Amino acid sequence: MYTESDLVRIAKRENNTKRSYLVVNKFQGKHIPTAPSKALAMFGELAELVRQAYPNEKLFFIGFAETATAIGAAVSSYFDAVYMQTTRELVPKADYLFFSEEHSHATEQKLVKDELAGIVSSVDRIIFIEDEVTTGNTILNIIQILEREYPAIKKYSVASLLNGMTQASLTAYEKKGIALHYLVKTDHSGYAQTADQFRGDGQYIAVNSSNVESKNIFHHQIKAYQNARRAVKTRDYEAHVDEFCACVLNQIDLTGKSSILVLGTEEFMYPALRLGQKLENSGKEVKCHATTRSPIAVSSEREYPLHVRYELRSLYDENRVTFLYDIGNYDSVIVVTDAAYFEKTGIHTLINALCIQNSEIHVIRWC
Fold this sequence. Notes:
Layout: H1 4-7, E1 8-12, E2 21-25, H2 36-53, E3 59-63, H3 69-76, E4 82-85, E5 96-100, E6 108-112, H4 116-120, E7 125-133, H5 137-149, E8 156-163, H6 167-176, E9 179-185, H7 191-197, E10 203-206, E11 217-222, E12 232-233, H8 234-251, E13 259-265, H9 270-281, E14 285-291, E15 308-313, E16 321-325, E17 332-337, H10 344-355, E18 361-366
Parallel strand pairs: 3-4, 3-7, 7-8, 8-9, 10-15, 11-18, 13-14, 13-17, 17-18
Antiparallel strand pairs: 1-2, 4-12, 5-6, 15-16
Helix pairs in contact: 2-3, 2-9, 8-9
């Protein structure tokens, strides 16, 4: 059982006139480094709510990029079902359904539609997975598109870690027959005021893109990639992730390394958490988090959730600015990515940021 004080930290959004605050979940493993066991246990609690609600239905799970991709994959792993995530990346040879995320700094979302017709004809319900639902408008946008494209689907639900919907929004969902499941109900009425009180005087580091030559930076490539931006059977995807983790552990010698950071990149979070979990189970002290598109203010205040921000270039598109928060010092850092081809500027900025406090870095590309 979780409470609002367990999960919710309020941060300031930067340059976002639509919403001045951001709800940061300290156990989610996205912005704040967290133990993978804590993140996956929380996701398991959400999966249990879904299991109790739909014990006999064939389910299709959709996780929202970028922050809910790991939640969606983790929740769906408890079911013999189908999973896919939305994306803002380009998927080779794909056709898309487009929809908007209204309060976000990066509004365009896409859902690969290539296999959707076959999937929706064989499932009873689509369940959208989110970290937080505030107005519910984004999900209503995509449901409207799906209803138009695939009228055979009649049942929709939403499962989220947090739900901050107003009574009016809850009533609108009830009238449409869309069920809501969540771990914690939140009240956003004071969040903007809380965010405005923080100074935003943390450390802002724009990382350079010069190439770092070091004998302690290692690059690895793992085959048998499965892309959850396309529909995947949950059992197959879990098996592929397990195989990926096993290959990583066979390639990397962590003997004598007790503290490990496993870092995901943008939408690619779930395999990093699973790898972190396996390392944790072997007795390592592990933290996980990920790079992100979210430009969040940082502050020196102790009660503020984020204190140091590193400005990077994306591994997926060197013209895109991304961020990483509160890098610590570890015996070894493992970067896990599915960037098809490394953008040199992106990987160099990430390694340079990590090298400020860390000397051994492994970069793992699943392709």
